[in-house]
Each structure stands twice: as C-alpha cells, then as structure tokens.
UniProtKB/TrEMBL annotation:
Top-rank taxon, per record: Eukaryota
Species of the source: Durusdinium trenchii
SUPFAM superfamilies from the UniProt entry: UROD/MetE-like
Family, per entry: Belongs to the uroporphyrinogen decarboxylase family.
The protein's name in its UniProt record: Uroporphyrinogen decarboxylase
Length: 437
C-alpha cells in the first residue's frame, strides 16, 4: 500500500497475477473437486484458494479469486465456462439494436458471493497483508459481450465502436455504471485496493483507445474512492501508455512489452508502476530467472512506487517453485547470489543513492565514525560503550544524509536484517525454492 502511494519502502513489494491458479498444487486440490464457476461462486472455496496461494507464495498481497465475466450475467448475458474452450456467451450482442437489452447492474447483491468471499478473506488474512479486488475494464467486458468469447481481431467489437458511436456510448456507460457499483461493493466489503484489467485494449490503435475507450476507463476510476489505490492495467500495446496514464489510476500496470525505465519517465513520480517481468521467464532455470527479475528491479530505479509483478498471469504448466522464488527478492538483491554481477549492481545502486553533496559529505564523515573509530576506541582501552556510541553516531550521520537526498535509507534495511527476521526469511525461502545450501 505504501508503494502504491509512492511512499518509501524498505523492500520492493511483490504479488503475482493469477497467483491462485492451476500451476499450484494447493489450488488444484480444491479445483479438482468443483467446476471453475462453482469455485468462483462458493465464497468459502474462493476464500480458501485466495488465502492459500498468498501463504504458500509468501507474497505481499492477496488478490481475490474471482473472474472478470460473472458481472455480465445480471446484465442479461448467458455465460458458460466450457471445458477446453473457456468462457462462452451464448447470446452476444449482434449489432447496435441489441444494446437496448443490456441491463445495468442495479442490485450488486446479485454478485453477493463475491463480497462474501472478500469478507471471509479479510477476516482470515494477516492485518498487514492487503487484499486486492478487481474487475474487467469497460472495453474488455464490452468485447466479451460482443464477440461472445475470445477473439483474434475483434472485428465485431471494433465495427460497433467505429460504426455506431451512439450505441457504443450507451453500452459503455451501462458497463461503467455496473462495474463502478461492483468495485465499490468490493471495497466496502474489505478490499484495500483494486485492479482494473483491460486485457484486450492492446488490439486498439492509440487514437481509438484515446477517443473511444480511455474516457470510459477514466469515468470508472473517477467513481471509486480517491483514498483507495486503483491499478490501471493495460496489456498488449506499449503505444497506449501515455493515454493509459491519462485515463487515471494511482498505479499504472504495464506488461513486459513496455520498457520499465522509459515507462517511469512517462508515468512520472506522482504515480506508482506495477510490473513487468515477462511471464515466460519463469520457465527458465533459477539463475536466469533471478537475473531477469533483477533487471526489472534495476529498470525500476531507486525512486519509490514500484510493485513487482509479472507482465501478465502465471501459466498453468509453470513450476510453482520458480514462482515462489520471485517472492524472495528484496531491494534488487538476492541473498543466495554472491556473483560479481550482484556486487556491481549494489555499487551502482549505492552511487545512485548518494548524489547530493551534503549526503556525500555526511557519508564521508559517517562511514569512518561507524566502522573505523570503534576499533580505535577499543584498541586504546576506552571500552565498549565508546565503540558502540561511535557506531551509532556514524549511523545517525548516514540517516541524515539519506534524509537530505530524499530517498529511503538503506541503513534501515541493514538494521532490520541485523535485528531480525526479514533477512532470515529471505534466506529460508530462497533455500526452499532453489534447493541451495
């Protein structure tokens, strides 16, 4: 939550899209007993797979187990999940005249099973772990309603959007009304942040997205509480980034096709960014996976406001141990790595954190006071108290330097590692996932 608000954090938070999914044995133990839609509509099961995935992976947030499409059912669409085919809508919109039969969701309790699951999850989730809700963006939901399922070219959707702006406007406004009520109800039930998935917007050219899609995403986000972070996630087309940012959201979610360092410049320092490891990286061996994850962290830079995630969801046949290993990363360094590459990365990050001349001066003074003077005192028989006093005075000087620089003090991380569990936890989870001693 602090990262979403662009506040300093001592670690880079991580959660994984589709973290409760078929790649995870604990998920399949539940899923094998019920259909997918039954799993979505039984709050006790949806809560179980949400909580289990968060706990098994050790990530920093839980995301509600649900699906984008059940919201279309109370809007008048006949939705079915077919084995091997995925979601199918049996009565898709055939043209502009069909828009009149689309009903906005007036009573969100038609989706009460979702909010019941949220309350159960929030009740059992550790207090310091946020729960993320989500919904489909207006364009993605409209595309499903028109195409009747997946599509390669979105001909019918684009034809309605381009050929009948009035009908398109009427459809999108009804979807915005419905999704706004739905997400507000998730928030009221206990979600601390929500993600809006525009999974299919990448099929659009920038002008069509700007004129016919982004205004409705913005209208949706504007109807959510301003103190609840909204993650605006678009996939498939880097050319949409600037308009995506203009559509709103405190956090901009990007996929792996976008250069993260360039994205941060476009997004600006007032908004956070989420992403953006290519999911296929998880198929690689662990050293390669770690290197690619480190590249993402390096591209994100040292400024606050980065949430580590994949550029899209986990695939069903991925190795769960590799997914778990991603949660063991903090501050761009992995404790099981001792390579020259890591040392170089550390020195580069250190240089980036000490650019202000006052910060440099305070570190020039503080470092020897911390690490040299205590030994001088001990060698002259002045006692441990003098040595400890020098040690902590030096650290105060370095803290002051970081305050002048305006970045998160690296010494905070070191002190935490010296005093307790975050460091040990990283080592243990690293060994569990990689088998390294």
């Amino acid at each position: 939550m602090r990262a979403a608000r662009c506040e300093p954090t001592d670690t880079t938070p991580v959660w994984i899209m589709r973290q409760a999914g078929r790649y995870l044995p604990e998920y399949m133990a539940v899923r094998s007993k019920v259909t997918f839609i039954e799993l979505c509509k039984r709050p006790e099961l949806a809560a179980e797979v949400t909580l289990t995935a968060r706990e098994v992976l050790g990530v920093d947030a839980a995301i509600l187990f649900a699906d984008l499409l059940p919201i279309l059912e109370p809007m008048g669409f006949d939705l079915e999940y077919l084995k091997g085919e995925g979601p199918v809508i049996h009565n898709p919109l055939q043209g502009a005249s069909d828009v009149d039969r689309v009903k906005p969701v007036e009573n969100v309790e038609d989706l009460g099973y979702v909010f019941d699951a949220v309350r159960r999850i929030r009740r059992d989730l550790p207090a310091d772990i946020p729960l993320l809700g989500f919904a489909g963006a207006p364009f993605t939901l409209a595309s499903y309603a028109i195409e009747g399922g997946g599509s390669k070219n979105y001909v019918r959707t684009k034809t309605l959007m381009m050929g009948d702006p009035g009908a398109w406007k009427a459809l999108m406004e009804r979807i915005v009304d419905s999704v706004a009520r739905y997400l507000n109800a998730q928030i009221e039930a206990g979600c601390q942040a929500v993600q809006v998935f525009d999974s299919w917007a990448g099929a659009l050219c920038p002008s069509d997205y700007r004129d016919s899609v982004a205004p409705y995403t913005k209208a949706l986000i504007d109807r959510l509480p301003p103190d609840v972070p909204v993650i605006n996630f678009v996939t498939g087309n880097p050319a949409l980034l600037e308009d995506q940012v203009n559509a709103g959201g405190q956090v901009i979610g990007i996929d792996w096709r976008v250069d993260l360092a360039k994205a941060r410049r476009v997004i600006g320092p007032q908004r956070a960014v989420q992403g953006n490891l290519d999911p296929v990286s998880i198929y690689c061996d662990l050293p390669t996976l770690r290197r690619r994850a480190a590249d993402v962290l390096e591209a994100a830079g040292n400024q606050p406001g980065h949430i580590f995630n994949l550029g899209h969801g986990v695939h069903p046949d991925m190795n769960p141990d590799h997914v778990k290993s991603l949660a063991a990363w903090r501050d761009g360094l992995h404790v099981s790595d001792g390579s020259f590459e890591v040392i170089v990365r550390f020195l580069r990050n250190y240089a980036q954190r000490h650019q202000h001349p006052v910060n440099q001066l305070l570190h020039v003074i503080g470092l020897p006071v911390t690490f040299v003077l205590p030994f001088v005192f001990l060698s002259r028989g002045m006692g441990v108290s003098w040595a400890l006093g020098s040690f902590f005075v030096g650290y105060v000087l370095q803290f002051a330097g970081h305050a002048v620089e305006g970045n998160d003090a690296g010494e905070v991380v070191l002190v935490k590692k010296m005093l307790g569990m975050p460091y040990i936890d990283i080592v243990e989870r690293s060994n569990e996932s990689s088998g390294e001693e």
